[in-house]
Amino acid sequence: MRVGLVCAHADSTRRVDGSAVGTHQHIAKVAAELAARGHDVRVYERRDDPDLPETVTVDGYRVERAPVGPATPVGTRELVPYVAEYGRWLLDRWSGDWAPEVVHGHYWIGGLAAAHAVRATDIPVVQTFHSLGVEQLRHLGGRYDGPGERIPLERALTRAVDIAVAQSNDEVDELTRMGLQRASVAMVPPGVDTARFHPDGEAAPRDRRPRILSVGGLTPGHGAEDLIRAMRLVGDAELVIAGGPPAEQLADHAEARHLRAVAERNGVAEQVKLVGAVPHEQMATWYRSADVVACTPHYSTAGRVSLEAMACGVPVVGYAMGGIADAVVDEVTGRLVPPGDVRSLGVTLRRLLADNASRFAYGHAAVDRVRCSYTWERTAGALERLYERVIGRRHPIEATAPVTVPETDTVPETVTTTPVEAA
């Protein structure tokens, strides 16, 4: 198959630590696996640096960078006016001697560009949102800071794609509430690089106290404040929070200062350590250094951190929501607690840290679960079968519900594709 994977953002992670994390990691791993299976794969992203080559071949697939928008890094809000231009650029690329048989949009901006590009063709579109604005708004409330047009455009996008790919059962439910038929939503969980994340290898230095590790961006929705408050109930243990800006910038980071103030107020300042950004290729050593990995975000679609920790043989204590609830089997690979229940979180952490036998058993079961159910090979195989179905079932082009995307000059343009049902 000829497969086009579309992401509107540039791969900003290459400037941070040289590795792909989050959405770009997902795309890179899927592309490499599909290429290894003999498919002709091309990945499309925005070019935000004039010194970068327009095309490059990586791990058997081709990356093409669109000269759309400013040649500098910009956020999602600033990309919205360039969606239609990006779609026209894609269509022009696919009007020559290479055109995809199926297009897979990633994140809502990438999906809008993909749908715009194929609106006058019979190329089917698959869409992975990675996160949903309406669900983030529900969980984060006033702390949600996404663009105002995101939620209505995501709803419109669901009507313009052939199949939406959910990464957790909670996301399946959310997409159906947004109006998609259940048969038009496919559940395909993310994978884990088990060659990098495994129990054997070096561990980051630590002291004699039990270690709880939390990983993620330093944002209000990450749940680090819940963990710090829970430390009052844990006892003599160390909480290490990895993520956010580089360590040397933490002193000037507003959320880092806030978390330190929370630790002071709760009398656990000596137990809380913020280490800042950690390169993804070094994360396995941090997971292995922990007795427990705590996953307490207020919103989580894929549960990537819980899966990586489990692959390293570390039990997870997490909020029973999103991808975390799917990945962690309660009392088998870790423990699940009600989201936002700080008391249950603290008590569960304390009991698990005191129970060496359970941690040992959970860790072994966690490794087995990841290797059986959460490899990138398995993820790519599921997508491969999904692509084959939508290509085989694509109906002739006909008019359907339009998706309106903003132009650079704010004049709306229409995107139309024909949805089909999944098997």
Automatic annotation (TrEMBL):
Residues 22-191 form the Glycosyltransferase subfamily 4-like N-terminal domain. Coiled coil: none annotated. Residues 206-364 form the Glycosyl transferase family domain. Keywords: Glycosyltransferase, Transferase. The keyword Phosphoprotein does not apply. GO terms for molecular function: hexosyltransferase activity. GO terms for biological process: carbohydrate derivative biosynthetic process. InterPro entries: Glyco_trans_1, Glyco_trans_4-like_N, Glycosyltransferase_grp1. PANTHER family: SULFOQUINOVOSYL TRANSFERASE SQD2. This is Glycosyltransferase family 1 protein. The lineage of its organism: Bacteria, Bacillati, Actinomycetota, Actinomycetes, Micromonosporales.
